[in-house]
Amino acid sequence: MNNLRWFPLFLLLAACNNGGDKAPVQTAATVTTFIGTYTRKEGHVDGKAVGIYVFNQDSISGYLDEVLVEEGIVNPSFLIPSQDGKFLYAVEEIGPDVDSVGHVVAYAWDGKALKKINSQSSHAFAPCHLSTDSQGRYVFVANYVGGIVAMLPIDENGGLKPASEVIQLSGKGPHPRQDSSHPHSVNLSPDENYLYVPDLGTDYINIYQIDYQNGKLIPANPAFVAMQSGAGPRHFTFHPVQPFAYVINELNINITD
Questions:
Q1: Superfamily of segment(s) 72-256
Q2: Are 237 and 246 in contact (CB under 8 A)?
């Protein structure tokens, strides 16, 4: 019975290794993965982590091998690396019981360790989302509490300068959670000339033209797209190839394209 059971397997292996019909061999690559966390209670989240976790991920198996944990940061709930991989930017999603404002923190990454460069005010509480342009000129931040979107210039060393633009949004919607403006993400257009800001509190997707030279956000024409009343738009993305965009609505639990 043993010979009969293994004989077909032997033939299969021999066929796979015969001549020019070899199956392509996959080679594993290691990908650095940064994981943001909550380190303390903030709103409905009772964080128990200690900072930013860095893992090496095997691209084939998906296995994660912990490299380090960067402590000394409060609620780094959202992270964005620079296009060249040399820098990492993190929010400190905090409320008035911690400081007078939230922060955006800049780190240098040399492939082995994170080194804090500096931090700047996000100009409101609960900064929850970041984006940066591919040329490493600015970091954009959305603050869930306070209705503020800010634009922070990036220094030559990867650190952050004080905000060059701070925009105060206003308004509210029909849902109990829409008591005021709650910008939930900041998203660059594919050509990086425009910034799209879904506002959960007002059911608007605000649109700004980016003035990189002067560090300003100029309302586009049209200046916003109105979503369904009570939708609560949260996160936004563009199709990688086709001219489409998608927004996930938290309050009415659907996706709009």
A1: YVTN repeat-like/Quinoprotein amine dehydrogenase (2.130.10.10)
A2: yes
